[in-house]
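the two lines:
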Amino acid sequence: KAGVTQTPRYLIKTRGQQVTLSCSPISGHRSVSWYQQTPGQGLQFLFEYFSETQRNKGNFPGRFSGRQFSNSRSEMNVSTLELGDSALYLCASSSVERGGTDTQYFGPGTRLTVL
Amino acid sequence: AQSVTQLGSHVSVSEGALVLLRCNYSSSVPPYLFWYVQYPNQGLQLLLKYTSAATLVKGINGFEAEFKKSETSFHLTKPSAHMSDAAEYFCAVTSNRDDKIIFGKGTRLHILP
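prediction for all of em together
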């Protein structure tokens, strides 16, 4: 099976712009989670989607949003970018809704740089 | 609330020596525990997971971890370090009531020749 894919791998934006990141889960996986990884804060949970519904959300401002499509692919959007949004954004998929009871498989990430 | 503490942001061991990466957790319910490894410019890869079965869990690449409830620990070990083990390691916790997975800050493992 192909792994989790994320596009683009690298992205450079300027403050105030918005960005959309894409994640394609492993075939058959219906749960997709997003994480932000920075040197200072480490890995932080953004949100989880299952069957096109947001099932869980981390402590991020409303500028961060996401959605999931019927084919389980997910997108994450960040509006009004700030310098502090520069990070590696990781997507993970699992085969069941309850991410804690099943293994999450991570994609390679999208590295976002905000200038 | 659950939390994870990884002791030591950097650990250095000589090639062939024992690897020990420490992880302590806090959870009010029985936890599920994970160790992930991240190589440069890559995503996270699962090394092993504890889901209330055997307390000694064997993972990939010769790693294993032991769940000790009395010590609230889930330390990662490998008997003999290899240069290819140099990476960042993350301990994570979740529960059957909360879908969020909480990650530790990570420990960067350096292997000395």
